[in-house]
Amino acid sequence: MSIVDWKWDFSTSPPTKLVLVRWEGAAPEDTTWEDWEQLWTSYDLEDKVFLPDGGDVNNLELNRPKIYSTRDLKAKVQEKFYEYLDVRGVNNELAVFLHEYMMNKDRIELLRWMDSLKSFMER
């Protein structure tokens, strides 16, 4: 197996580190995204993992993202941060729009594809 890429999955709390695994003997299109911690514990990867700056492979905290909360900021900084976001249109209304958009995105794309297919078939 070889790890060819990685990303954070922010749909989980806390975010999960995912790695793209190319399995030995499998076709390149059979690469899969796997949970890093499960992969690390399921396979004996301790002596096969490179950590920059001489990191300790036994310290799993190195593999976790640092998560900050606006609650950790001073009140005045929080206020200015929310003003900064609001001026740029990042507010509750945007959050509702993005949620609805994501929920309907697949359906909308399917309808567009079906319209394209219909136009093609009518030619």
UniProtKB/TrEMBL annotation:
<dbReference type="InterPro" id="IPR036561">
    <property type="entry name" value="MAM33_sf"/>
</dbReference>
<dbReference type="Pfam" id="PF02330">
    <property type="entry name" value="MAM33"/>
</dbReference>
<dbReference type="GO" id="GO:0005759">
    <property type="term" value="C:mitochondrial matrix"/>
</dbReference>
<dbReference type="InterPro" id="IPR016197">
    <property type="entry name" value="Chromo-like_dom_sf"/>
</dbReference>
<dbReference type="InterPro" id="IPR003428">
    <property type="entry name" value="MAM33"/>
</dbReference>
<protein>
    <submittedName>
        <fullName>Uncharacterized protein</fullName>
    </submittedName>
</protein>
